[in-house]
Specification:
Number of helices of chain C: 9
CATH architecture of chain C: Orthogonal Bundle
Distance between the termini of chain B: 39 Å
Order of helices and strands of chain B: EEEHEEHEHHHEHEHEEHH
Number of domains of chain B: 1
Largest sheet of chain C: none
Strand order of the largest sheet of chain B: 6-7-8-3-9-10
Number of helices of chain B: 9
CATH class of chain C: Mainly Alpha
CATH superfamily of chain C: MetI-like
Helix content of chain C: over 70%
CATH topology of chain B: Rossmann fold
Strand content of chain C: under 5%
CATH superfamily of chain B: P-loop containing nucleotide triphosphate hydrolases
Largest interface: A-C, 41 and 39 residues
Number of strands of chain C: 0
Oligomer: heterotrimer
Shape of chain B: globular
Strand content of chain B: 15-25%
CATH class of chain B: Alpha Beta
Distance between the termini of chain C: 56 Å
């Protein structure tokens, strides 16, 4: 079993792979923010909405968290055309991840809403704060501090999860690695370099998210989670 | 020859020295108490003796043998001869009272199971908990848990018993039952090194008292000297302050 | 489109197709359960290494920490490709299922070891001190004192991880392991409507995952509310 590693060719492709890493981040960003906004609406509905809204949002979450995002995207990509809706692979993947994220991010944000304690609101009221001041100084900072850590972890999860775009031909990091691998025999080296880029990418993301959390939301604890 | 001889013992947490050359003897069947303000290093001294905090300098002798805290075998033999009871009882939450008391003698020392259980039952009766053999620690009061911890320590048949502020975590009405247990032990001739803030008790039960401050021994002497005629200014301040409460 | 689906349904749910789907679902479940069981044991081993304190074991500890940190930061798909190529280079006759299983083990070891570590750390340090001064050995402390208390904390998230991984094994279809997602592709290639096929596959995953998710919640509730 002698395998000699040769990283020369894989390193030659580094700029191409790094370009893919940017696409990876783009997908993760878009899916995260659209998922977060949808999820916010969902969380609001879950906490304050009428019964039928609670039910529908609950069903949505149960469905999306109990089926694989890969198959959800398969559905978007292959089934929607049967109804006359054609999506590009990039759109299908980003949309699929966004719909999937919405379910998880709704859960996270709901937990944030529920974490606000009545005693804090009472205290703010006795201080004579207006509704807006209460939101601005008490409620929003509290929710932000509670949900920031799980949101950051979820973003990291999305960076890794966006690799499934490769299955639909999206040229993000993993997709580009596969592209090279089909025309190059040094497949192990290429995927090792790709893995390393993911490690560095998510480490940088974790550390910067951790710093932002520490300075803007007063999140305690280590930078890596 | 003293039973326990501590000479110039030093220890630190990180770079902060917490014990700065402690020297002290304990004779067989003697009760020695450590007093002093919090942060004076009393608890650390006990923890250093059993090697939970590693001493950085100095020697400890038990009987004829000198302890080497860096050697696993030597550490094992010190821990065989001493037992410690902690402020927070530190009972194993996953075991019944009986198992807490018997696990070390049976599983670690490999003593005869039936004899250990018989001894444990006697000890539990002695600390007034014979009805609680099958209770779990979280079903007991703090005072009861602390008495289980004392029984657990005694079941190891230690030559020396270390008691680290065993009443500090207890509600005031539960302190008495634990102190009674310790008084009994003293009467039976158990050699003990005690850290306590219960000055009345310390005075009554100790043969000698060691006043510590800032990681060093300030003064040693019989209770009468320490409480009534201290030689050192700091001892006088401390006892005056604490007795005025 | 609806007409087409209605027309295809009887043929789609033929006995042979249903058997095929059930077998595929079994493989999906097996991949996740077996992979996470092995991963749990290996993860436990990593934690046992990480909690040692002897200076001579520092390199092993660093390796164990490095493993958990690195393998939680690489996409499962990339790991699957790496395992596929690496194993084909050394053992060309290994089955695709074995390869996928190894991939699952690599990832689950990293995540489960993190879950186990957190569980072990939830047991108060004082009890470890007490055991140490009573001359418990390192392994006796771990398995007589720490583990019996930590499992209540460890089990719910470990179980949730396994259930979550049922969905991630869908990626093994990419390598040709005939699990649920691959079965979907096969049926879709036979000409069945994609809506019908992937709808059925989504439903199959849901049927696997949902009861287990509920069971996990029940476990969490049950273990959380009882002693300690």
């Amino acid at each position: 079993m002698n395998y000699t590693f040769q990283f020369g060719e894989a390193l030659k492709e580094l700029p191409y792979l790094l370009g893919g890493a940017i696409v990876t981040l783009e997908i993760a960003f878009m899916a995260f923010w659209s998922g977060a906004i949808l999820g916010l609406a969902g969380a609001y509905g879950l906490v304050y909405g009428p019964r039928w809204i609670k039910r529908s949002v609950g069903t949505y979450i149960t469905f999306f968290t109990n089926t694989p995002s890969v198959v959800q995207i398969f559905f978007l990509f292959y089934a929607l055309p049967e109804a006359g809706i054609l999506l590009s692979s990039f759109t299908a993947v980003t949309l699929g991840l966004a719909l999937n994220s919405a379910a998880y991010l709704a859960e996270i944000q709901r937990a944030g809403f529920l974490s606000v304690r009545q005693t804090e609101i009472d205290a703010a009221e006795t201080l004579g704060m207006s509704r807006f001041q209460m939101l601005r100084y008490v409620i929003v900072p509290h929710i932000a501090r509670t949900i920031y850590p799980p949101l950051s972890s979820f973003f990291i999860w999305l960076v890794l999860g966006s690799s499934i775009g490769a299955l639909y031909g999206v040229e993000e990091l993993t997709g580009r690695a596969i592209n090279i691998a089909t025309s190059n025999l040094r497949t192990i080296e290429i995927f090792l370099v790709t893995a390393l880029i993911y490690v560095v990418l998510t480490l940088c993301a974790s550390v910067s998210l951790g710093l932002v959390g520490r300075y803007f939301f007063r999140v305690k604890g280590g930078l890596l989670r | 020859m003293a039973h326990l001889e501590i000479d110039n013992l030093c220890a630190s947490y990180g770079n902060t020295p917490v014990l700065k050359g402690i020297s002290l003897d304990v004779e067989k069947s003697e009760v020695v108490s450590l007093i002093g303000p919090s942060g004076s290093g009393k608890s650390t001294l006990l923890r250093a003796l059993v090697g939970v905090t590693k001493p950085t300098e100095g020697t400890v002798r038990i009987g004829e043998t000198t302890v080497d805290y860096r050697s696993a075998a030597s550490l094992r033999s010190v821990r065989d001869s001493m037992a410690i009871v902690f402020q927070q009882y530190n009972l194993f939450q996953n075991m019944t009272v009986m198992d807490n008391v018997t696990i070390a003698p049976i599983k670690i020392k490999k003593w005869n199971k039936a004899e250990v259980r018989k001894h444990a039952a006697e000890l539990l009766e002695r600390v007034g908990l014979s009805a609680k053999h099958n209770a779990y620690p979280d079903e007991l009061s703090g005072g009861q848990q602390q008495r289980v911890a004392i029984a657990r320590a005694l079941c190891l048949r230690p030559q020396l018993l270390l008691l680290d502020e065993v009443t500090s975590a207890l509600d005031p009405e539960l302190v008495g039952e634990v102190l009674d247990t310790i008084r009994d032990l003293a009467r039976d001739g158990m050699t003990m090194l005690i850290v306590s803030h219960e000055m009345g008790f310390v005075r009554e039960v100790s043969s000698r008292i060691v006043m510590m401050d800032k990681g060093a021994v300030v003064e040693k002497g019989p209770p009468a000297q320490i409480f009534d005629a201290p030689e050192q200014e700091r001892t006088r301040d401390f006892t005056a302050r604490i007795l005025s409460h | 489109m609806i007409d087409r689906i209605m027309r295809e349904i009887p043929r789609f749910f033929s006995a042979s197709n249903v058997d095929f789907l059930i077998e595929a679902a079994g493989r999906t479940l097996l991949l996740s359960v077996a992979g996470c069981t092995i991963g749990f044991l290996l993860g436990l081993l990593l934690v046992v290494i990480r909690r040692t304190s002897h200076p001579a074991l520092l390199p092993l500890r660093t390796l164990a920490i490095g493993y958990t940190e690195v393998f939680r930061r690489i996409p499962f798909l990339v790991i699957l490709f790496l395992v596929l190529f690496a194993i084909q280079a050394v053992a060309p006759r290994a089955s695709l299922f074995t390869i996928a299983l190894i991939g699952v083990c690599i990832v689950s070891t990293a995540f489960l070891s993190e879950i186990i570590r957190a569980g072990f750390e939830s047991v108060p340090r004082q009890q470890v001190d007490a055991a140490e001064v009573m001359n418990f050995s390192y392994l006796q402390i771990l398995f007589l004192v720490v583990a019996p208390q930590a499992w209540r904390v460890i089990l719910p998230p470990a179980f949730a991880f396994m259930v979550m991984f049922i969905k991630d094994t869908a990626l093994a279809s990419q390598m040709g392991v005939v699990e649920l997602t691959f079965a979907g592709k096969v049926l879709s290639n036979k000409g069945f409507s994609a809506t019908l096929t992937f709808g059925a596959i989504l439903l199959a995953y849901f049927i696997l995952s949902y009861p287990l998710t509920r069971l996990g919640r029940y476990l969490e509730h049950k273990l959380g509310s009882s002693r300690n």
